[in-house]
Amino acid sequence: MNLHEYQGKEILASFGVRIQRGIVAHNKKEAVDAAKQLTQETGTSWHVIKAQVHAGGRGKGGGVKLAKNLKEVESIAEEIIGMNLVTPQTSAEGKKVHQVLVAEDVYYPGDSDTEEYYMSVLLNRAESRVMIMYSPEGGMDIEEVADKTPHLIFTEEIDPATGLLPFQARKIAFNLGLSGTAFKEMTRFVSSLYKAYEQSDASLFEINPVLKTSDDKILAVDAKVSLDDNALFRRKQYAEMRDLREENPIEVEARAVGLNYVDLDGNVGCMVNGAGLAMATMDLIKMAGGEPANFLDVGGTADAKRVEEAFRIILKDANVKAILINIFGGIVRCDRVAQGVVDAYKNMGDAIKVPIIVRLQGTNAELAKEILDNSGLAVHSAVQFQEAADKVKEVLA
């Protein structure tokens, strides 16, 4: 689950990480009120207006602007709120901005003695360890830094048995070229950041930039945070931060009816039980010359109602030219799935206008094939994996 910048900063602050302070606003009046409040609390007279969408590169799309007075705060907020923000990480249509973060300006006027760093905490799956990635070249695309100056990318892997050790935090501060007060500030920053990552069950904390001010304060100017969906049951305060407006509407609908669905860009819809079989089915589709349009795991209860819901979800994608149902009947009987397919097909009537290939293996597979073959519906039944692949190729031809 992705979070907005202001939500990520709330989590960081709760673990003692110093942040660029800000207040969320949903209209220009709230933006002006937020700016006035920040001026009273921090003394800042300039403010940064930041679009709150789940995408990076907001500044490149005009979603981050500096306001030097209240009139500019009002006009910039009015301009950004409601716009479709297009960034390198959005589609061509962009994302609609529903709110902005009015933040204090932490770059002191006329001050050139500031430094920007990059830092992220994420899981290194190859090593089964959490990794802190950091660079003295912050404030720009880390991919570009890695491409042009890879020697400026550092990593520190954390042993899960011990967690982040003090010497590792000091090593990070040293590699960033810090000393004195800034060195101590950075070690505290790193330790608090790691604690926030670990205790929020996050999959990513990315801070770009981490700023060193001229008076040697270290703070997070931005925050890109992704939490592990599977751990939200024990982090209910974070689950409430979910902004469904930022997520794929089809995936939101699928989640609401208990289906595991991920939208993809292909032309063959998949309906499968089990994540492993789903991945194999997607490979099968590619080998047959198609492209998977989705990942959809119906689980172990593929009855008529569930199959019908899965059909409706898949068919919301106009790019789908065929649907492959690949079910292994272990817990669920194949004949029950077959009857579910037939009932769902009849209930939906003319809504299904694409070929359907059904491969059922396992308990009562032969009976399931008889049900499909005798249904009188335009359903192609298959027994073997290769047979299903051949039928996918045939209907796409």
From TrEMBL:
<feature type="binding site">
    <location>
        <begin position="330"/>
        <end position="332"/>
    </location>
    <ligand>
        <name>substrate</name>
    </ligand>
</feature>
<dbReference type="Pfam" id="PF08442">
    <property type="entry name" value="ATP-grasp_2"/>
</dbReference>
<dbReference type="InterPro" id="IPR017866">
    <property type="entry name" value="Succ-CoA_synthase_bsu_CS"/>
</dbReference>
<dbReference type="Pfam" id="PF00549">
    <property type="entry name" value="Ligase_CoA"/>
</dbReference>
<dbReference type="InterPro" id="IPR016102">
    <property type="entry name" value="Succinyl-CoA_synth-like"/>
</dbReference>
<dbReference type="GO" id="GO:0006099">
    <property type="term" value="P:tricarboxylic acid cycle"/>
</dbReference>
<feature type="binding site">
    <location>
        <position position="116"/>
    </location>
    <ligand>
        <name>ATP</name>
    </ligand>
</feature>
<keyword id="KW-0067">ATP-binding</keyword>
<feature type="binding site">
    <location>
        <position position="106"/>
    </location>
    <ligand>
        <name>ATP</name>
    </ligand>
</feature>
<dbReference type="GO" id="GO:0000287">
    <property type="term" value="F:magnesium ion binding"/>
</dbReference>
<keyword id="KW-0816">Tricarboxylic acid cycle</keyword>
<dbReference type="InterPro" id="IPR013650">
    <property type="entry name" value="ATP-grasp_succ-CoA_synth-type"/>
</dbReference>
<feature type="binding site">
    <location>
        <position position="50"/>
    </location>
    <ligand>
        <name>ATP</name>
    </ligand>
</feature>
<comment type="subunit">
    <text>Heterotetramer of two alpha and two beta subunits.</text>
</comment>
<feature type="domain" description="ATP-grasp">
    <location>
        <begin position="9"/>
        <end position="238"/>
    </location>
</feature>
<dbReference type="GO" id="GO:0004775">
    <property type="term" value="F:succinate-CoA ligase (ADP-forming) activity"/>
</dbReference>
<dbReference type="GO" id="GO:0004776">
    <property type="term" value="F:succinate-CoA ligase (GDP-forming) activity"/>
</dbReference>
<feature type="binding site">
    <location>
        <position position="222"/>
    </location>
    <ligand>
        <name>Mg(2+)</name>
    </ligand>
</feature>
<feature type="binding site">
    <location>
        <begin position="57"/>
        <end position="59"/>
    </location>
    <ligand>
        <name>ATP</name>
    </ligand>
</feature>
<feature type="binding site">
    <location>
        <position position="273"/>
    </location>
    <ligand>
        <name>substrate</name>
    </ligand>
</feature>
<comment type="similarity">
    <text>Belongs to the succinate/malate CoA ligase beta subunit family.</text>
</comment>
<dbReference type="InterPro" id="IPR011761">
    <property type="entry name" value="ATP-grasp"/>
</dbReference>
<feature type="binding site">
    <location>
        <position position="208"/>
    </location>
    <ligand>
        <name>Mg(2+)</name>
    </ligand>
</feature>
<dbReference type="GO" id="GO:0005829">
    <property type="term" value="C:cytosol"/>
</dbReference>
<comment type="function">
    <text>Succinyl-CoA synthetase functions in the citric acid cycle (TCA), coupling the hydrolysis of succinyl-CoA to the synthesis of either ATP or GTP and thus represents the only step of substrate-level phosphorylation in the TCA. The beta subunit provides nucleotide specificity of the enzyme and binds the substrate succinate, while the binding sites for coenzyme A and phosphate are found in the alpha subunit.</text>
</comment>
<dbReference type="GO" id="GO:0006104">
    <property type="term" value="P:succinyl-CoA metabolic process"/>
</dbReference>
<dbReference type="InterPro" id="IPR013815">
    <property type="entry name" value="ATP_grasp_subdomain_1"/>
</dbReference>
<keyword id="KW-0460">Magnesium</keyword>
<keyword id="KW-0547">Nucleotide-binding</keyword>
<keyword id="KW-0436">Ligase</keyword>
<dbReference type="GO" id="GO:0042709">
    <property type="term" value="C:succinate-CoA ligase complex"/>
</dbReference>
<dbReference type="GO" id="GO:0005524">
    <property type="term" value="F:ATP binding"/>
</dbReference>
<comment type="pathway">
    <text>Carbohydrate metabolism; tricarboxylic acid cycle; succinate from succinyl-CoA (ligase route): step 1/1.</text>
</comment>
<keyword id="KW-0479">Metal-binding</keyword>
<dbReference type="InterPro" id="IPR005809">
    <property type="entry name" value="Succ_CoA_ligase-like_bsu"/>
</dbReference>
<protein>
    <recommendedName>
        <fullName>Succinate--CoA ligase [ADP-forming] subunit beta</fullName>
        <ecNumber>6.2.1.5</ecNumber>
    </recommendedName>
</protein>
<dbReference type="InterPro" id="IPR005811">
    <property type="entry name" value="SUCC_ACL_C"/>
</dbReference>
